[in-house]
């Protein structure tokens, strides 16, 4: 599903925290590709989604999806920075997007993790929590991985 964005000249800009457009319910932010940034990305979702009127269940699901997508970009690419987008559509759909700078696998693929495996469940979790998810080529050789969750998706 392609989602078109209107650009508005009234977009508020916060240099240290990214940009927010409350009329569109959208926030874009970039973080360094470090382990500590995963918690910051989760926190951004956790603080913004309730402001936009989403249920606790959906906020928790979106927070977990952001965490998994950000972690995959961190672990599986050679990125120095990771760009994130959080967007609400009519308080019924929440869209999460993570863009890396490349250097990883061409296409993210869910794996079947064994009972004793410590890794390999992230995309399966995203698939379980999201109504839809996917990827596309990003700028400068990177990938964009996205997920969208509806109000009923918080399981």
Automatic annotation (TrEMBL):
UniProtKB keywords: Kinase, Serine/threonine-protein kinase, Transferase
Region (Disordered): 1-20
Pfam families assigned to the protein according to its UniProt record, in alphabetical order: HATPase_c_2 (PF13581)
CDD domains the UniProt entry points to: HATPase_RsbW-like
Keyword Nucleotidyltransferase: no
Domain Histidine kinase/HSP90-like ATPase per the UniProt entry, residue ranges: 31-147
MF terms in GO: protein serine/threonine kinase activity
PANTHER family linked to this entry: ANTI-SIGMA-F FACTOR RSBW, ANTI-SIGMA-F FACTOR RSBW-RELATED
Protein name from the UniProt record: Histidine kinase/HSP90-like ATPase domain-containing protein
Species for this entry: Streptomyces antioxidans
């Amino acid at each position: 599903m392609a989602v078109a964005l209107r650009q508005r000249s009234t977009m508020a800009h916060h240099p240290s925290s990214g940009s927010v457009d409350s009329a569109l319910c959208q926030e874009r932010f970039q973080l360094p590709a470090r382990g500590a940034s995963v918690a910051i990305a989760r926190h951004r979702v956790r603080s913004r989604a309730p402001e936009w009127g989403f249920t606790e269940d959906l906020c928790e699901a979106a927070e977990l999806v952001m965490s998994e997508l950000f972690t995959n970009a961190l672990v599986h690419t050679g990125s120095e920075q990771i760009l994130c987008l959080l967007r609400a559509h009519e308080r019924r759909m929440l869209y999460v997007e993570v863009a890396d700078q490349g250097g990883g696998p061409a296409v993210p693929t869910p794996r079947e993790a064994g009972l004793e495996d410590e890794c390999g469940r992230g995309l399966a979790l995203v698939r379980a929590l999201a109504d839809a998810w996917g990827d596309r080529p990003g700028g400068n050789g990177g990938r964009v991985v996205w997920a969208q969750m509806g109000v009923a998706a918080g399981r």
